[in-house]
Amino acid sequence: MHGPASDLPLMFVDASIVTREVTMLDRITLTVKPGSPTILIGPNGSGKTTLLRAAMGLVHLSKGRIRWGDRDGDTPPKNAIMFQRPTMLRRSAVANVRYALAAANIPRAQRHERAAELLALVGLHDIGSRPARRLSGGEQQRLALARALARDPTVLFLDEPTASLDPYSTKAIEDIVRAVSARGVKVIMSTHDIGQAKRLAGDVVLLHRGRLIESTPAAEFFATPRTEEARKFMAGELLV
To answer: Which of 231, 234, 197 is nearest to 217 (CA)?
Structure first.
């Protein structure tokens, strides 16, 4: 479970998105390298989700470019994104995963075993026959992770995957993120939770009003934030 090195680093070069005269991303220049998870933090409206969607090619830049490794152009086909509120198909948990495997062009003969592996990875191997829409919120998030991993992604984008989850479910998701990262998948994840960023991040990207405020290794960011915005955010103060 890992992608080709040529897909990384991911580079945003003077990337801007303006929609109806509202600046969603403002001249972002950022390099995301292989390794431990990159965690995006910042208040609501800071541009975290927009940055993830742009990287996946779901929204287009108004200006600038995105580079994958040594090339410009489309998002590599084996990347995946999980949104904050994923939709569950009206079928069993294992059938949800098999559907994702079929969409990823995994041969039919391999889908049964692969689906079992993915459900085991996310801790749902014993409830695969249950209707997906009857699972708890935390279980649905783990199932959505299994579906995203069906693509065997180079990079896995996670948009606040633990928002509104209880501590037990949050820990389960964080454990999966660590396991996936250890297997060579680059995780790029947004969160509001400073504690979560401290637990998971290899490096931290702070956004505010669509601008890049800081991008530094996690240990450096939490020990000696360079900007006033970072210091305020770390202290729990509002950024306006």
So the answer is: 197
Say which CATH class 1-79+155-240 falls into. alpha beta
Contacts of 205 (CB under 8 A, 6+ apart): 30, 38, 39, 40, 41, 212, 214, 215
Distance CA 30, CA 236 (A): 25
Closest alpha carbon to 80 in 165, 179, 147, 12 = 147
Helices (H), the chain: 48-55, 93-103, 108-121, 137-149, 167-182, 194-200, 218-223, 228-234
> What does the pLDDT look like over 108-126, one tens digit per residue?
999 999 999 999 999 999 9
Side chain identity at 45, as an amino acid letter? G
What does the alpha-carbon distance between residue 24 and residue 225 come to, in Å, rounded to a whole number?
Answer: 24
The DSSP bridge partners found for residue 63 are 16
Query: Can you give the residue ranges of every domain in the chain?
Result: 1-79+155-240, 87-152
- β-bridge pairing 211-217 and 203-208: antiparallel
| Tokens matching residue 48 | 């975290």
What is the tens place of the pLDDT at every residue in 197-216? 999 999 999 999 999 999 99
